[in-house]
Amino acid sequence: MRSRTTRRKFLRMMGAAAGLAVGATIPGFLGGRLVLSDSFTVPAGAAEQMAPAQIKVYSVEKGTRVMTQTVVKTKEEWKKSLTPEQYHILREKGTERPFSGKYDKHHEHGVYRCAACGLDLYRSEEKYDSGTGWPSFTAPIAPENVGTKPDNSFFSQRTEVLCPRCGGHLGHVFDDGPKPTGKRYCMNSAALQFVATAK
Length: 199
Hints:
Blueprint lengths: L1 H28 L24 E6 L4 E6 L5 H7 L2 H9 L17 E5 L5 E4 L3 E2 L7 E2 L9 E5 L6 E5 L6 E6 L9 E4 L4 E5 L3
Antiparallel strand pairs: 1-2, 3-4, 3-11, 5-6, 6-10, 7-8, 8-9, 9-10
């Protein structure tokens, strides 16, 4: 009986220590980058609980990398600034039906931005028709303009793509794209905002 009580206390202490270790890593997560390691998962909405931080991203307008601040809002604030579909996709990791999005067959010249915070994500030059029913790109505007993390939901292993400025869910990236990158950044139209630019 005594050994069983000791084991229970030991397990409680280990659980508490693990909780402290995870808590200690959270501030570092938004301290400068969103690309996460395989061993650390941040739940949807985690950015809502953290203070804004400075990150470096590429700006199409400036033609160079710039410092910007992460966007932190409460659920209520996001619901006010996004449509119900945008909120479901960007904040709750939803997915629009294939071939239903306005950017699937979109061919104008310009830049695709995050619909939640306006960060530059993809150029029209990198967009291609993947036949999947979702707008697809071979590469982001710059590596730091998207974040990725493992997604093991729905009994599959995928790589989720997120906005590094607001933490919004954009879609997934796969290794079955065309040359030269071999990547297919499969995005939700509702997570994007298109801005036309001169050729």
